[in-house]
UniProtKB/TrEMBL annotation, chain A:
Pfam families: SBP_bac_5 (PF00496). One of its GO terms (biological process) is peptide transport. The keyword Signal applies. InterPro entries: Peptide/Ni-bd, SBP_5, SBP_5_dom. Residues 86-471 form the Solute-binding protein family domain. GO terms for cellular component: ATP-binding cassette (ABC) transporter complex; outer membrane-bounded periplasmic space. It is found in: Periplasm. This is Peptide ABC transporter substrate-binding protein. Residues 1-22 form the signal peptide. It comes from Paragemmobacter straminiformis.
From TrEMBL, chain B:
Residues 112-321 form the ABC transmembrane type-1 domain. This is ABC transporter permease. The keyword Aminoacyl-tRNA synthetase does not apply. It is found in: Cell membrane.
Length: 567, 335
């Protein structure tokens, strides 16, 4: 019943809208398809990219990011900086000014109180907010007046653009979510599925894990936008089916995350109905080296901990040899096509932050063999496997169950076998591998293997928190219930010291230099992390959908207000 | 017959309780975590808070008892409240999906229509194709028609739906462009045009599933007919000078249908269970797609509830098949 009244209201609003604004809603319907269906429209209660992207068409942050990784104002007049006085001299506070006459889609005014509420909502300890890191270090958020939001940090904050920035931390309407604080958060089904926002669209219908129906927001701040009257996100199926619906049958305008094999990409392009677009963020498929000994003979509690250094991989020569034997270009060609490029960096972008480290791209089998010889690993009994002190050069190489990863495993096993390494492969269900259950021996944090392969990325262009993973204190161990992001148990005082300076450096150029050095320390200087492929998100859009600018730093739908029908 | 039915129904209660416990433990002890799909950029302490907010950190038996209470008391009462406008269980925690934070039964309610329409139609279409094929194949055993029918059944048996479905998509959607590949669950049939659209979007999934269903049932029908064709009463009927049509369609068919009806009845729970692969392939997003999505996301309340509902349906339709058997075959009496 409620839905119907809402729909009627929307329809009524529409009937009036064209008279005032000639362009809004003139291009009909835009149809999107996601291979994973949308579960919830509240980004604070989900970690799923699908949900966050869908919600970004409705909910907006104060500031967003462009495809170049540059901040742009969304609900505010300008980006606060030290120069314009928006950021205090001591870097402990940032002040945002809301746009005048800003309205929620229900017609009520957006005020600073909504921002204060959003902060309270996400920091309530019982709420289980998944974007809590966005508000980390925030001491208070206050409404100076109805349109001025002051965020105070508990100390100087080098990167103050976290709270209320990007699709991960949008503004919620206080009126709608007031009763949903803390433990009540998950029970507010209606609010979570149909949030009131400021974005170009508003939700008119929602079925869990299936379809999101949206209509143009009659109160959107630009009276001429969006060009589309309605939008639909249909979820489900697989990447290939989604890509086909855009590229071959033309049923949909946009398909997010169409990661399909390179040869299928080519054949779909041939149909000529659409094109693939790639956004390169910081997602890097990598092999992580274990610096601790995962030998099952060791007692539980000591196995794979810093107590026992790895018998083979502690030698940097072995690690370097393993990296040199890999031909990253072939991996890209087999696995990703246009959706990937070879890389030697943990931080592959954005430009300015990425180190110019390219030494690993060319495969060097002879060099790798020479290094192993040097390290004392020689094939003394002629069985094709190198050994040293009576111990075979044996490596257990694990990853998740995933067709591309199994291809990579097979290729890399071939190269390493040529090198004289005995490689044992293992593939683990992703739910278990990434599940983090301390009772399971197969989680990536426990790392009961010699090397493991997966992908990880920095959630923002500024990689401070991402680089923080490799500090000594973040190593998973029995004491931390096997939680922690430093899964290699990499630990050097130099890295920790340099990282500490990053947190206090505010000059961008200096920050970039430090980030590059930190990147080099874990990659080419130590070969603790062996990056393989810089992965992009491959999406597809039809030729008739204009205005698409794919974005790796914010939601891919960040500029959905500007999308239009090519006529 | 009545006492038999009552006895079976009463016996079903402990059976279902044991099943529910087994399912709960199986799902719970299986490795995996609801946090597995959360990006690695979310730090461990935030993950821990999210798990606590879901209630997933509670001991297994606490969650099991809570689930029992929710399933057998709160959910039926919520339905009752909804019908009669009372508020007996208002504000009490319903079974919430971990993935979407929506009540599991609301999701099932949204999804059941798609599944019943698409999978149910496919089942009906399957039966309607299978029965004539089975009957005629048996009547003209080893004829050309029988050989073709056998070939058809073998294809239906052995070709998996993910292959036949994709093949149909490529032929009918990509090359010919007749049918859409994605099912629009929001389509409301209000006039001829939307009805036509509904038929079009159902065509491919129904064809895919219908083929598989028809294969099984046509084989049962054929062999059951063959068993009966050689019976004495058939020879007697023919000797009495009865019309072939009467012999086959009245005498033989009626007797042959008994086992086939059982097979069909036992297959009905699978309609409610949906078709995991086909639903996913065509974006029908029914119960099957919900189940596999929940399994991927380690959404335990959803998996547990769905699996238990399937168990209830299977127990129920086994009973119905037994009763039908008794009704169709006067020789079978349970008392």
């Amino acid at each position: 019943m409620k839905l119907k009244t809402l729909l009627l209201g929307a329809a009524a609003a529409f009937a009036l809208a064209p008279a005032a604004h000639a362009e809004r809603g003139t291009d009909g319907e835009v149809k999107l398809t996601f291979p994973q269906a949308v579960s919830i429209m509240n980004p604070y209660l989900t970690g799923g990219t699908k949900d966050i992207y869908a919600a970004s068409m409705v909910l907006e942050p104060l500031a967003g990011l462009t495809p170049e990784g540059v901040l742009i104002p969304k609900l505010v007049t300008e980006i606060p900086t030290k120069e314009n006085g928006g950021i205090s001299e001591d870097m402990t506070s940032i002040t945002w000014k809301l746009l005048p006459d800003l309205k929620w889609s229900d017609g009520t005014a957006v005020t600073a109180d909504d921002a204060v509420f959003t902060w309270q909502y996400c920091t309530d300890p019982a709420g289980g907010c998944s974007q809590a890191t966005k508000y980390e270090g925030v001491a208070s958020v206050e409404a100076v007046d109805a349109s001025t939001i002051k965020v105070t940090f508990s100390g100087p904050k080098a990167n103050p653009y976290t709270a209320f920035v990007s699709a991960l931390a949008p503004l919620l309407q206080k009126k709608q979510f007031e009763a949903c604080l803390g433990a009540a958060a998950p029970t507010c089904t209606d609010a979570n599925n149909m949030p009131v926002g400021t974005g170009p669209f508003m939700v008119t219908g929602f079925t869990v894990n299936d379809t999101v129906q949206m209509a143009a927001n009659p109160n959107y701040r630009d009276p001429a936008k969006p060009a589309f009257a309605t939008a639909v996100i249909k979820g489900g199926g697989d990447a290939e089916g989604s890509a086909r619906a855009v590229m071959e049958t033309g049923e949909f305008d946009y398909a997010w995350n169409t990661q399909i094999p390179p040869e299928t990409q080519e054949s779909m392009k041939a149909a000529g109905k659409g094109e693939f677009v790639v956004a390169f963020g910081t997602l890097v498929e990598r092999i992580e080296m274990n610096t601790t000994d995962p030998d099952p003979a060791l007692p539980e509690g000591e196995r794979a901990t810093a107590k026992h250094p790895h018998p083979i991989l502690s030698d940097i020569k072995v690690r370097t040899a393993l990296s040199k034997a890999i031909d990253r270009s072939i991996l890209v060609e087999v696995g990703y096509g246009a959706g990937g490029k070879p890389t030697c960096n943990v931080i592959p972008g954005p430009e300015g932050w990425a180190s110019d480290n390219e030494g690993c791209i060319a495969q060097d089998m002879e060099g790798a063999k020479a290094l192993l010889d040097e390290a004392g690993w020689k094939d003394s009994d002629g069985d094709g496997i190198r050994d040293k002190d009576g111990k075979k050069l044996h490596i257990l190489y694990q990853t998740t169950v995933n067709p591309i990863r199994q291809d990579f495993q097979a290729l890399i096993k071939d190269w390493w076998t040529e090198l004289g390494v005995d490689v044992e492969l293992k593939a683990i269900d992703p739910g278990v591998f990434f599940g983090g259950d301390p009772g399971s021996p197969d989680t990536f944090q426990k790392f009961y293997a010699d090397v493991e392969m997966y992908a990880n990325n920095s959630e923002s262009p500024d990689p401070e928190s991402y680089l923080g993973q490799y500090q000594c204190k973040n190593a998973p161990s029995p004491e931390t219930q096997w939680q922690g992001e430093n899964i290699n148990r990499f630990c050097t005082p130099e890295y920790d010291a340099l990282y500490a300076t990053l947190a206090t450096t505010t000059d961008i150029a200096a920050r970039q230099e430090i980030a590059k050095k930190l990147n080099d320390m874990v990659t080419k200087d130590s070969m603790i992390v062996v990056p393989l492929v810089h992965r992009g998100t491959l999406s597809a859009h039809s030729n008739s959908l204009g205005g698409v600018q794919i974005n790796a730093w914010d939601s891919e739908m960040w500029n959905a207000a500007d999308w239009f029908r090519v006529k | 017959m009545l006492t038999f039915t009552l006895r079976r129904l009463l016996l079903a209660i402990p059976i279902l309780l044991v099943i529910s416990l087994v399912i709960f433990l199986l799902v719970d002890l299986a490795p995996g975590s609801p946090m597995a799909e959360i990006p690695l950029t979310v730090p461990p302490d935030v993950r821990q808070k999210m798990i606590e907010a879901l209630g997933a950190d509670q001991p297994v038996f606490v969650r099991y008892l809570l689930w029992l209470k929710q399933f057998f008391w709160i959910e039926p009462m919520t339905l009752y409240d909804g019908w009669f406008g009372t508020s007996i269980v208002e504000g009490q925690q319903r079974i919430l999906s971990w993935q979407s934070r929506s009540p599991v039964f609301t999701i099932i309610g949204q999804r059941l229509p798609q599944t019943l329409i698409v999978v149910g139609t496919a089942y009906l279409v399957g039966i309607m194709i299978a029965l004539p094929i089975g009957i005629y194949s048996a009547y003209r055993q080893y004829s050309f028609f029988d050989q073709v029918g056998t070939l058809f059944a073998m294809i239906g048996f052995s070709v998996p739906t993910f292959f036949s479905g994709t093949l149909l998509i490529i032929i009918f959607a990509v090359w010919l462009g007749w049918f859409p590949t994605k099912y629009d669950t929001m389509l409301e049939v209000t006039d001829w045009q939307s009805f036509l659209q509904q038929v079009k979007q159902m065509a491919l999934p129904v064809m895919t599933l219908g083929l598989a269903n028809a294969a099984t049932i046509s084989r049962y029908m054929r062999s059951s007919m063959l068993d009966n064709m050689t019976m004495d009463y058939v020879r007697t009927a023919r000797a009495k000078g009865m019309d072939e049509k009467v012999v086959v369609l009245r005498h033989v068919l009626r007797n042959s249908l008994i086992p086939v009806v059982t097979v069909i009845a036992l297959g009905i729970p699978s309609i409610f269970g949906g078709a995991i692969i086909t639903e996913n392939l065509f974006g029908v997003n029914g119960i099957g797609a919900a189940l596999i999505g929940a399994i991927h996301a380690n959404d335990l309340p959803m998996v547990q509830t769905l699996a238990f509902i399937f168990a209830v349906l299977i127990v129920l339709f086994n009973l119905i098949a037994d009763i039908l058997y008794g009704l169709l075959d006067p020789r079978i009496r349970y008392d």
